[in-house]
């Protein structure tokens, strides 16, 4: 049996060019903030394809940038030293890198859609928070959805995911919080910056608001993406995103330490953080709590 036929380049190029005309969007937020939950509910909408995680920055843009720079340096060295006095080979243009990254992202999104003509196509990777300005330059009409959660719950959720035994000491927990609180703050600051920089194309939803009032939050997100916010569609997405639905029947509040979906509640930091560690987080990040509606 021979190798499968390779589809024509022109056919695939036309396919991704058409995809680029749809509403592209990217979801991001600190790990353990609820980005997977949001991505799953968005993907349940009949006019949305949203999958994760493509890691376009880590596994595509960063290595491709190094490769392009290496090629440029090698060509330049040969043009200068070996072919001195001749025209040499043209060096890559400054925008070649982003053109190639954009094409690769569109190809991935096209495969994600699997031929379904969704109106809005998106991808969720936490680090999209930091890469969105680049994505916005490549795709000028792209939108960003940030997912934010009380950083105390983020840190406690991350701790329980990585440290699965009761033998971990209070000193290890304290070291983990001190080591991680800065990175958590970086995600939150960047989301606020994106919302200020792109007021029409960047929005933020919080884990707590989705738990408390999911209907208006999802309706707002669907309108933001230009898709239906009909009551039955919103209800379907909420039902499919309920904690029990995503865990095979385990209710929210029933903990499974080490599970990706551990507990599904807000305010659980109180069961793990000491008053001193709470003060540490508030000292670092408490200034931004009002912007997200969190209580200190």
Protein architecture, described:
The protein has 296 residues and is an alpha/beta fold. The protein has a domain at 9-150 and 195-257: Rossmann fold, CATH 3.40.50. The protein has 13 helices and 5 strands. The protein has a 5-stranded parallel sheet, sandwiched between helices. Helix 9 crosses helix 10. The longest helix has 28 residues, at 170-197. The chain is globular, with a radius of gyration of 22 Å. The protein starts with 8 loop residues before the first helix and ends with a helix. The relative contact order is 0.15. The mean pLDDT is 93.
Architecture blueprint of SSEs:
Blueprint: H1 9-19, E1 23-28, H2 35-43, E2 48-51, H3 56-82, H4 96-113, E3 120-124, H5 128-138, E4 143-148, H6 151-162, H7 170-197, E5 202-206, H8 207-212, H9 214-225, H10 231-240, H11 243-246, H12 275-285, H13 289-292
Parallel strand pairs: 1-3, 1-4, 2-3, 4-5
Q: Poorly predicted ranges (pLDDT <50, ≥5 residues)? A: none
Helix-strand pattern: HEHEHHEHEHHEHHHHHH
**What's the CATH architecture name of the domain at 9-150 and 195-257?**
3-Layer(aba) Sandwich
Total beta strands: 5
What is the overall shape? globular
State the name of the first-level CATH class of the domain at 9-150 and 195-257: Alpha Beta
What is the count of helical runs? Answer: 13
Q: How many whole angstroms does the radius of gyration measure?
A: 22 Å
The SS-based structural class is: alpha/beta
CATH topology of the domain at 9-150 and 195-257: Rossmann fold
| Percent range of helical residues | 55-70%
Largest sheet: 5 strands, parallel
Report strand %.
5-15%
The name of the CATH superfamily of the domain at 9-150 and 195-257 reads P-loop containing nucleotide triphosphate hydrolases
Mean pLDDT: 93
Distance between the termini: 65 Å
Strand order of the largest sheet: 2-3-1-4-5
């Amino acid at each position: 049996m021979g190798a499968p036929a390779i589809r024509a380049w022109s056919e695939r190029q036309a396919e991704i060019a058409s995809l680029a005309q749809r509403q592209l969007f990217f979801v991001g937020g600190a790990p353990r903030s609820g980005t997977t939950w949001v991505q799953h509910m968005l993907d349940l909408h009949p006019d949305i394809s949203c999958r994760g995680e493509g890691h376009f920055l880590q596994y595509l843009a960063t290595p491709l940038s190094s490769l392009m720079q290496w090629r440029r340096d090698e060509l330049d060295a040969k043009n200068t030293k070996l072919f001195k006095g001749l025209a040499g080979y043209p060096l890559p243009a400054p925008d070649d890198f982003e053109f190639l990254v954009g094409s690769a992202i569109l190809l991935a999104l096209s495969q994600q859609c699997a031929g379904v003509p969704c109106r809005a196509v998106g991808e969720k990777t936490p680090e999209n928070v930091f890469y969105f300005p680049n994505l916005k330059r490549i795709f000028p009409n792209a939108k960003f959805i940030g997912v934010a959660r009380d950083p105390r719950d983020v840190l406690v959720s991350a701790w329980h995911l990585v440290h699965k035994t009761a033998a971990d000491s209070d000193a290890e927990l304290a070291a983990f919080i001190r080591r991680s609180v800065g990175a958590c703050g970086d995600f939150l600051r960047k989301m606020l910056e994106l919302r200020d920089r792109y007021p029409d194309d960047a929005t933020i939803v919080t884990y707590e608001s989705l738990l408390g009032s999911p209907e208006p939050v999802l309706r707002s997100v669907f309108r933001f993406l230009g898709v239906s916010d009909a009551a039955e569609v919103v209800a379907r997405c909420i039902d499919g995103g309920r904690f029990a639905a995503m865990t095979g029947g385990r209710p929210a509040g029933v903990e499974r330490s080490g599970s990706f979906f551990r507990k599904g509640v807000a305010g659980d930091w109180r069961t793990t953080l000491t008053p001193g560690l709470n003060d540490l987080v508030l000292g670092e990040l408490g200034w931004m709590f009002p912007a997200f509606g969190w209580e200190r």
